[in-house]
């Protein structure tokens, strides 16, 4: 299982990558393996402000439906257009296939609740 060290993680199995003025959010390799074959994503919160740890959408797999939780407070700027037609890419490349692009309200984003790769591995028992 893959845990890129440059990413930060949540206890709810999302990853986040901070870029220049925005962040990309996706689900972890562990999460996609637990969910199984992903068939659909519903992210209705485009252009809205979503608070940290609030649900911003759902991911539907053959076996189950699971909520997606926002790692930081921010406005959803974009939903990855590729996943609408090809949600299975999340199973194939979970760290290359981001779900949403988020604009934090300012540069003072609280990262203290986010986990390093090592901390995340401990939580999931790897």
Automatic annotation (TrEMBL):
HAMAP family to which the protein is assigned, alphabetical: GcvH
Output the lineage of the source organism: Bacteria, Pseudomonadati, Bacteroidota, Sphingobacteriia, Sphingobacteriales
Question: Can you cite a GO biological process for this protein?
Answer: protein lipoylation
Recorded hits in InterPro entries, A to Z, give:
2-oxoA_DH_lipoyl-BS, Biotin_lipoyl, GCV_H, GCV_H/Fam206, GCV_H_sub, Single_hybrid_motif
Q: Which cofactor does it need?
A: (R)-lipoate
Q: Which UniProt keywords apply?
A: Lipoyl
Residues in domain Lipoyl-binding?
22-103
Pfam families in the cross-refs: GCV_H (PF01597)
Q: What is this protein called?
A: Glycine cleavage system H protein
């Amino acid at each position: 299982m893959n845990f890129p060290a440059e990413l930060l993680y949540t206890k709810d199995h999302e990853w986040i990558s901070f870029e220049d003025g925005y962040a990309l959010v996706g689900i972890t390799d562990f999460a996609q393996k637990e969910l199984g074959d992903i068939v659909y994503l519903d992210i209705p919160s485009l252009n809205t402000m979503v608070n940290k740890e609030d649900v911003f959408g759902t991911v539907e797999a053959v076996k189950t439906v699971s909520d997606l939780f926002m790692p930081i407070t921010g406005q959803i700027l974009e939903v990855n257009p590729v996943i609408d037609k090809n949600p299975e890419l999340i199973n194939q490349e979970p760290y290359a296939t981001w779900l949403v692009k988020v604009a934090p309200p300012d540069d003072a984003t609280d990262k203290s609740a986010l986990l390093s790769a090592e901390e995340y591995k401990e939580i999931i028992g790897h």
